[in-house]
Amino acid sequence: MTPIRFGIIGGSGLYKMEGLEDMREIAVDTPYGAPSDAIATGTLDGVPVAFLARHGRSHSTLPGDIPFRANIWALKSLGVDYLVSVSAVGSLKEALAPRHMALPDQFIDLTRHRAGTFFGDGAVAHVSLAHPVCAALSAALAQAFDDCALPDAVLHRGGTYVCIEGPQFSTYAESQLYRSWDASVIGMTNMPEARLAREAEIAYATLALVTDYDCWHEGHDAVTADIAIGNLMHNAANAQRVLRACIARLAAAPPASKAHSALQQALVTQPAAMPEATRARLAPLLKKYL
Ligand SMILES: CSC[C@H]1O[C@H](OP(=O)(O)O)[C@H](O)[C@@H]1O
Ligand SMILES: Nc1ncnc2[nH]cnc12
């Protein structure tokens, strides 16, 4: 099968990709079970793309129950090496208002109960997460945003995304704590997604859609799911346009990404020394190192 290099994970409010032609749904079986949903493959303006709804198309999976390893493994096995994650986020800064967009470039991972690595079972690797977002992919998203010239749309470049376990939103004290860390946005899903993408040598970047001011802002009600989804619906069409423009840019000139060689200096156990079953499980990740 021809590799599908460009992947999109849609979060809250983004359950399908508009404009996907010759669409086929693929139920990928992985060593980590089934992904969140069937993966929709097709072409966007002639470019092969794979789309996956992170919580399932009917939004029935909690953030902590998302099969992150199955999702990333499945996309990797299709050939994805550039992955754009779309996520609803709360704002931790006055300047990032609801309905703005942001391109976070750092994460603080406060999740507690999620499987966060493909390695283990006789295979040791330590990838670098110093720069968890692919700068080139994020730049392509920023350029795509400019290409679209969306009236009234605002994009913030950079910033730190705090990933909480959820599913409850934060307490006021927690929200103030994250603000004191100078974090920009808060969500429940980008970790361990970003760390697994790095282990799979997939360039990863998040297009964050600001839906609320969490619960710290005196002039705004504390976030509820209804508030978040309501604001997101206003932004979903814009997000789809930015994604489409981004894919066109990437296809025209796929940028170099350090993520594509993340395992080169990370593998401690050589594949030949790994148990056969582990090597088989990691095959899509290790292919070029075997
Ligand atoms: C419905 S608001 C809370 C929900 O939205 C975000 O999900 P995603 O990143 O998939 O858009 C947030 O992390 C929560 O899961
Ligand atoms: N305030 C918030 N906290 C966590 N996840 C969110 N997703 C959207 N808004 C959020």
TrEMBL record:
<feature type="binding site">
    <location>
        <position position="189"/>
    </location>
    <ligand>
        <name>phosphate</name>
    </ligand>
</feature>
<keyword id="KW-0808">Transferase</keyword>
<comment type="similarity">
    <text>Belongs to the PNP/MTAP phosphorylase family. MTAP subfamily.</text>
</comment>
<feature type="binding site">
    <location>
        <begin position="54"/>
        <end position="55"/>
    </location>
    <ligand>
        <name>phosphate</name>
    </ligand>
</feature>
<feature type="site" description="Important for substrate specificity">
    <location>
        <position position="225"/>
    </location>
</feature>
<feature type="domain" description="Nucleoside phosphorylase">
    <location>
        <begin position="5"/>
        <end position="248"/>
    </location>
</feature>
<dbReference type="InterPro" id="IPR035994">
    <property type="entry name" value="Nucleoside_phosphorylase_sf"/>
</dbReference>
<feature type="binding site">
    <location>
        <begin position="87"/>
        <end position="88"/>
    </location>
    <ligand>
        <name>phosphate</name>
    </ligand>
</feature>
<keyword id="KW-0328">Glycosyltransferase</keyword>
<dbReference type="InterPro" id="IPR000845">
    <property type="entry name" value="Nucleoside_phosphorylase_d"/>
</dbReference>
<comment type="subunit">
    <text>Homohexamer. Dimer of a homotrimer.</text>
</comment>
<protein>
    <recommendedName>
        <fullName>S-methyl-5'-thioadenosine phosphorylase</fullName>
        <ecNumber>2.4.2.28</ecNumber>
    </recommendedName>
</protein>
<keyword id="KW-0660">Purine salvage</keyword>
<comment type="function">
    <text>Catalyzes the reversible phosphorylation of S-methyl-5'-thioadenosine (MTA) to adenine and 5-methylthioribose-1-phosphate. Involved in the breakdown of MTA, a major by-product of polyamine biosynthesis. Responsible for the first step in the methionine salvage pathway after MTA has been generated from S-adenosylmethionine. Has broad substrate specificity with 6-aminopurine nucleosides as preferred substrates.</text>
</comment>
<dbReference type="Pfam" id="PF01048">
    <property type="entry name" value="PNP_UDP_1"/>
</dbReference>
<feature type="site" description="Important for substrate specificity">
    <location>
        <position position="170"/>
    </location>
</feature>
<feature type="binding site">
    <location>
        <position position="188"/>
    </location>
    <ligand>
        <name>substrate</name>
    </ligand>
</feature>
<comment type="pathway">
    <text>Amino-acid biosynthesis; L-methionine biosynthesis via salvage pathway; S-methyl-5-thio-alpha-D-ribose 1-phosphate from S-methyl-5'-thioadenosine (phosphorylase route): step 1/1.</text>
</comment>
<feature type="binding site">
    <location>
        <begin position="212"/>
        <end position="214"/>
    </location>
    <ligand>
        <name>substrate</name>
    </ligand>
</feature>
<feature type="binding site">
    <location>
        <position position="12"/>
    </location>
    <ligand>
        <name>phosphate</name>
    </ligand>
</feature>
<dbReference type="InterPro" id="IPR010044">
    <property type="entry name" value="MTAP"/>
</dbReference>
